[in-house]
Amino acid sequence: MKIQINIILITLLLFLNGILKAQKTVSDTLAYAKKFETNKEKYIGKPFSLLLKDMAQMHPKRQNPT
Questions:
Q1: With contact defined as beta carbons under 8 Å apart, do 43 and 36 qualify?
Q2: What string of DSSP letters covers the chain?
């Protein structure tokens, strides 16, 4: 009986750990991409390097594994 309770508790903890990691907030990538879509007139007829230069201003955030 005690082994079954331990197995259930470990399974529950692993399941909750997976849910909590899936729920972490991240920066809004879609809003960042939409910003370029709404300003697409700025990039029409211009070299692709202009878009890449503007996109390079985004710095990815690092998350420490816990």
A1: yes
A2: -HHHHHHHHHHHHHHHHHHHHHT-----HHHHHHHHHHTGGGTTTS-HHHHHHHHTT--PPP----
pLDDT at 18: 63
Closest of 21, 38, 29 to residue 59, by C-alpha: 29
Provide block-wise average pLDDT over 10 residues at a time, the chain (66 residues).
85 70 61 84 90 73 62
| pTM of structure | 0.41
Burial 14-41 (b: 16+ CB within 10 A, else e): eeeeeeeeeeeeeeeeeeeeeeeeeeee
> Residues near 43 by Cβ (< 8 Å), separated by ≥ 6?
36, 50, 51
